[in-house]
Design a protein that fits this description.
The protein is mainly alpha-helical and 127 residues long. The protein has six helices and two strands, in the order αααββααα. The protein starts with a helix and ends with a helix.
C-alpha cells in the first residue's frame, strides 16, 4: 500500500510522542504539529481505516504493526539524514528541517548507501 508523505509524518509523530510519554492522544498530535483538532481528527480516521493506528476506548492512539514499521522507517531516515547534515556543517535546526523534506523522497537504495557511508564514517571517527 502506498503511503503518503502526510501519513508518514503523522506516524513518525506518534512514534516520537510515544517514546516521550505513556499515552498519545489527538491533542498531543495537534500540539506537535500546531494543527487544528479537526485536521488531526480527519487524518487519524483515515489512518485508522487504513490499519495504521488503533484508538482504544480512552482515545489512546497506538501504532499497529504496519504503522510502526512505517514510522520506524521514516524516523530512521530522519535521524540518519539530520546527523549526516550536521556532520558536514549544517546547523542542527536546518538539518532537522531539511531531513523532514528529504526523508520521504529518497529511494530505498539511496538511503541504504547514505546510511552505510555515514555509519562507516562514524565508526572510523570513533577509532
Amino acid at each position: 500500500m502506498a503511503v503518503t508523505e502526510a501519513v508518514e509524518n503523522y506516524l513518525e509523530a506518534i512514534l516520537v510522542l510515544k517514546r516521550k510519554q505513556p499515552d498519545v492522544h489527538a491533542i498531543d498530535i495537534c500540539n506537535y504539529f500546531n494543527y487544528s483538532r479537526p485536521t488531526v481528527s480527519v487524518a487519524l480516521k483515515q489512518m485508522k481505516d487504513k490499519g495504521f493506528i488503533l484508538v482504544n476506548g480512552e482515545n489512546h492512539i497506538s501504532l499497529t504493526d504496519e504503522g510502526l514499521e512505517v514510522a520506524e522507517r521514516i524516523y530512521e531516515r530522519h535521524t540518519i539524514i539530520s546527523k549526516m547534515l550536521v556532520s558536514i556543517g549544517v546547523s542542527k535546526a536546518t538539518a532537522l528541517e531539511d531531513a523532514c523534506k528529504i526523508e520521504h523522497d529518497l529511494s530505498d537504495e539511496t538511503f541504504r548507501c547514505i546510511k552505510k557511508h555515514f555509519n562507516e564514517r562514524m565508526a572510523k571517527e570513533q577509532k
